[in-house]
Write a structure and sequence with these properties.
The chain contains 13 helices and twelve strands. The two termini are 47 Å apart. The chain binds a DNA duplex through helix 8, helix 10 and strand 9.
Length: 420
DNA sequence: TCTGGGGTCCTAGGACCC
DNA sequence: TCTGGGGTCCTAGGACCC
């Protein structure tokens, strides 16, 4: 048996925990750059705010219904997430952290007899310790647990938990789940299946294996197995090592000047280098990319990326910045208004497996000590307090975050104050 | 004016080898 | 007119996830 536990409207709920006045009100959280709505409270969904709607299209609705709007506060959400995960891991050590707001638990070793009772307990504990509402779905496979979780959100009786313990209960949920609600069915597969009159998950499991395999590859076959109660998706206790890391952002406004792009690209490069150091990894290869707005139909779209080999796999900021700027030199073109840039590193290996080059001109030992010192200072004083000059000081291009809440749980200066 | 960011997995097809 | 067959590796692109 597996449980899928996820936080309801996670980002919106996090904002509510520290601002009870938001209770019962429509709340939305915007993506980076205050671009579009990525989290919505129940009330916001009810007035018709759809996932990923651009903020500028919501202006009327926001005014009309007095919607409370927030910029993404990842420091806060990340910290709340680790609190939830810690509580979950107190129920069982067999836990897979699936995303910032959800986790699978493997319940097979658990002595709990009554699964429903366990689900209730999980829900209550998280609510009590963090203030966050969660939903629990329990079933024989991960995909069914996902479906049970979705079902738990829809149903009127005992909302927030649902267990699929026998074939009858499973069949009921399959028949009441739209095909698009199955984990792994996206827009394209939905279209394909609807063309073949497959409307529900119940219809889907009636399809012959060969058809699924032919039209939806092994991915479809796995979904089919999972829905039939045969676990076919890997259990990942430990997150597998990352294959690539990326830092990219849209700019607050369209950027034309090369110097501003250099600031941005070197900032992203420094960020990627920091991510590598946190994972104790080095990268052997990088890509830098640059693009104009895909939404401006009148102007020519310019998307260009360049690949660069790093002579020796590295996580040293200065080195990664150096090559990123070299890449920018290659792809930069005057006469365009750029919306977005990014730095990607691949060929990632553990830092203790780096093969040093015979003709290496970089003093890696010294640089590693420098990076450790830099990370330490920044950890104490706050992110980016010490940085490379090329990253710029003003950073006018930096993304917008006009409605940012405080970092209540991670910064002493931003603790919640209560007047009594 | 204003449209997120960071990932994974799979397949097909080309290049290359014997 | 004839022009193998198998294998591997790499890449681009598609689909999906949160």
């Amino acid at each position: 048996m597996f449980a899928l536990v996820d936080c309801n409207n996670f980002y919106a709920s996090c904002e509510r925990v520290f601002n009870p006045a938001l209770e019962g009100k429509p709340v939305i959280v915007l993506s980076n750059n205050d671009g579009c709505a990525i989290a919505r409270s129940k009330e916001a969904k009810a007035i018709g705010i759809k996932m990923a709607t651009p903020a500028f299209m919501l202006e009327d609705l926001i005014k009309e219904h007095d919607v409370k709007v927030f910029s993404s506060n990842y420091t806060l959400y990340g910290d709340m997430s680790s609190r939830v995960m810690e509580i979950l891991s107190s129920f069982t050590p067999s836990i897979e952290y699936y995303s910032i707001d959800e986790a699978f638990l493997d319940l097979s070793e658990l002595k709990y007899q009554d699964m429903t009772e366990l689900a209730v307990k999980i829900r209550q504990t998280i609510k009590q310790y963090t203030g966050l509402p969660v939903t629990v779905g329990i079933a024989p496979t991960k995909t069914l647990a996902k479906l049970a979780n979705r079902f738990a959100k829809k149903k009127k009786l005992t909302p927030g938990i649902h267990c699929l313990l026998d074939p009858v209960q499973i069949q009921e949920v399959l028949d009441h789940s739209k095909i698009s609600e199955v984990w792994g069915i996206g827009r394209q597969h939905e279209k394909l299946l609807l063309r073949h009159h497959v409307k529900t998950a119940g219809d889907f499991i009636k399809l012959p294996d060969e058809w699924v395999r032919k039209n939806m590859s092994v991915v479809g076959q796995r979904m089919l197995n999972e829905l039939c109660g045969i676990p076919s998706i890997k259990w990942e206790d430990q997150p597998p090592p990352k294959k690539g890391m990326c830092t990219s952002r849209s700019f607050a406004y369209l950027v034309t000047s090369k110097s501003e792009l250099q600031e941005a690209v070197s900032t992203y490069a420094a960020n990627v280098a920091l991510k590598l150091r946190r994972e104790h990894s080095c990268a052997g290869h990088m890509q830098v990319f640059l693009q104009t707005s895909p939404f401006n139909n009148e102007k020519e779209l310019y998307i260009k990326s360049v690949d660069l080999d790093l002579p020796v796999p590295t996580n040293i900021s200065a080195e990664i910045i150096h090559y990123a700027l070299k890449g920018l030199d290659i792809i930069y073109k005057t006469g365009f208004k750029f919306l977005k840039a990014g730095v990607i590193v691949i060929e990632i290996i553990p830092e203790d497996q780096v093969q040093h080059g015979l003709f290496d001109t970089v003093n890696r030992e010294k640089n590693n000590r420098l990076m450790a010192a830099l990370d330490n200072v920044n950890k104490t004083l706050g992110k980016d307090m010490v940085r490379f000059a090329v990253q710029g000081y003003e950073k006018k291009w930096k993304l917008k975050a006009a409605y940012l809440s405080k970092r209540y749980t991670t910064n002493y200066k931003e603790l919640l104050t209560i007047k009594i």
